[in-house]
Amino acid sequence: xxxxxxxxxxxxxxxxxxxxxxxxxxxxxxxxxxxxxxxxxxxxxxxxxxxxxxxxxxxxxxxxxxxxxxxxxxxxxxxxxxxxxxxxxxxxxxxxxxxxxxxxxxxxxxxxxxxxxxxxxxxxxxxxxxxxxxxxxxxxxxxxxxxxxxxxxxxxxxxxxxxxxxxxxxxxxxxxxxxxxxxxxxxxxxxxxxxxxxxxx
Length: 201
Description:
By secondary structure, this protein is α/β, with parallel strands linked by helices. The chain folds into two domains: about 120 residues, Rossmann fold; about 70 residues, no CATH class. About 50% of the residues lie in helices and about 15% in strands. The strands form two sheets. A five-stranded parallel sheet has the order 5-4-1-6-7, with helices on both faces. Strand 4, helix 7 and strand 5 form a beta-alpha-beta unit. The protein is globular. The two termini are about 15 Å apart.
C-alpha cells in the first residue's frame, strides 16, 4: 500500500521553461548554441551536485563556448528565472496531505538556484520534507540519493511512489524499490497515482 508520495520539482511542480527564456533573452540562433553549452551539456548535472560555487559553475560552462562568457554567466546567475511553479502545484501537495499521505520532495538543484527560487515555491511548506541534491552532493539517478531520502525521512521504498519527468530518474527509484511514475502532465499523473491506489479524496 502506498503511504508516501515523493515529487521531483522541475517539470512536475514547476515549469522549467529554459527554452522560452533563452529565446527571449538571446534570440533563436544564439539560444541553441547556449543551450548546448549549458542545460544540454553533461556538466549541467554537476551544477546540481553542489560541489562548485556559482562562479566556478559559470567558469566551467564557459569552457564550452568561451566567446559567450557573458551570456553563460547570465544563465547561471539567473537560473532561478528559468522556473515558474505550475498553478496546481500547491493544491496538489495539499490535497495529498489532506488525504493522509506523507509528501516529500526529491530534486536535482544547485544551492544558489534553489535558494533564489525557493520563495516562489509555495508548495514547499505543505510537504513533510525535502532533500535537494546539493545538500548531499548526489544527483538522480544515483541510487545513493534515493537511499539518502529514505533514510532521512524513514520512508519504506515499497510504500512510496516517486514522480519525475525524467524516465532515467524514475527507473533509478524503481531499481531502489520504489514505485515510479514518469510525469507527462497532471491528469496523466493523477490517473497513474489512482492506478496505484492513491486517492486525492
